[in-house]
Fold this protein.
Amino acid sequence: MSDRLGLPTTSTAARPATGGTLPAALLQSGTSSFTDFASSVAPNVLPGGRSPLESTGAGYADLAPHGTTIVAATFPGGVVVAGDRRATMGNMIAQRDIEKVYPSDEFSIIGIAGSAGIAVEMVRLFQLELEHYEKIEGAPLSLVGKANRLATMIRQNLGLAMQGLVVVPLFAGWDLAREEGRIFSYDATGGRYEEQAFFSVGSGSVFARGSLKKLYRQNLTDTEAATAVIQALYDASDDDSATGGPDLTRRIFPIVMTATADGVQRVADDQIADLVDQVVAARMQRPDGPGAPLL
């Protein structure tokens, strides 16, 4: 039997007894983990469920856009996460305004470094994972629980990571139980590590972290913390070609988000523009950036 367009149709008698055309697995209550559910019903939607790539003789990392650098720092009222806007493909600039920092839920933030396409897909799956858990369990995961779920997802991508398509995010958020901002970093195997005060990932992370070692103070305000991470990204772009500095002509600036007791907020573009203009103006007088007091 076919419809008016010539497409095959399914008679009512041939439809599953579960009702409609949905597979039975989709109508059953199961795990609170969306990735576990997807791996049993449709594993092909997960990065780790895909077939290994065949060797082409070229580095896979050079064939796909690559994103860097992500910086995070805590302050007394929360945590700030910032990312530059450049994506590279080998020695080429693939995109000048890519977004690498996203809210993962109401109180947490994820920044991506590595293979951009897979990283963005992982962010979307992670957002769905947290939403799915809250709907099934009736309560959100703890911040540590969220960090552990992200570690599991990174581990599932290990097969592609071994072929050069690495994803290494930076996760941060407001811990409702401890009432403080916390930062978690990862390695390509899914190892999870809690960082203190500040951290960075990506090709420019060494330079950004070195910058924050001199600029960071425990009593920073939210605006001062945002300025510090912008300074760190500027220093990273000064020494790492894959990290994009502020683009004054196109007015493309880092994305900055904060997580506090009030939730996740993206710092307004005009506010970031003002901070960047201040940083750049100061660099005209001191190109290597502000000095830190010795004592």
